[in-house]
Amino acid sequence: MNDKKTPENIEFDIRGQICPSSLLTTLKELNSLKQEIKSGQVIITVKTDNRDATVTIPETATNMGYEVNINKKDDYYIITIQKSDKISP
């Protein structure tokens, strides 16, 4: 039997915000949910229509040790931030 729980997906819709506001909003949430993300309990999904945010948010989250994926959907982007399965040296 598999005891692994499916992570909770917490979604933030920051469409309409521009950088640095979009980055700061996301960073605030990443910091407040740090333990939950690192333990794999939570996945953060950010919806943004700001192209600059598709660079600044993933770069910052990756530097914090998270795995990041970006997908284009219609007229906005979906940035998914989750626990990294990579083993740190």
Quickly list its features.
single chain; 89 residues; alpha+beta; Translation Initiation Factor IF3; four-stranded mixed beta sheet; 3 helices; 4 strands; 31% helix; globular
Describe it for me?
This protein has 89 residues and is α+β, with helices and mostly antiparallel strands. It has a single domain, classed as TusA-like domain (Translation Initiation Factor IF3). Helix content is 31%, strand content 33%. The protein has 3 helices and 4 strands. A 4-stranded mixed sheet has the order 1-2-4-3. β3 and β4 form a beta hairpin. The termini are far apart.
Instruction: Classify the beta-strand content into a percent band.
Output: 25-35%
Low-confidence stretches: none
Q: Give the overall form.
A: globular
Number of domains: 1
Rg over C-alpha atoms, rounded to the nearest angstrom: 13 Å
Order of helices and strands: EHHEHEE
Order the strands across the largest sheet as they lie in space: 1-2-4-3
| CATH level-3 fold name | Translation Initiation Factor IF3
Summed over residues and divided by their number, the pLDDT gives a mean of 91
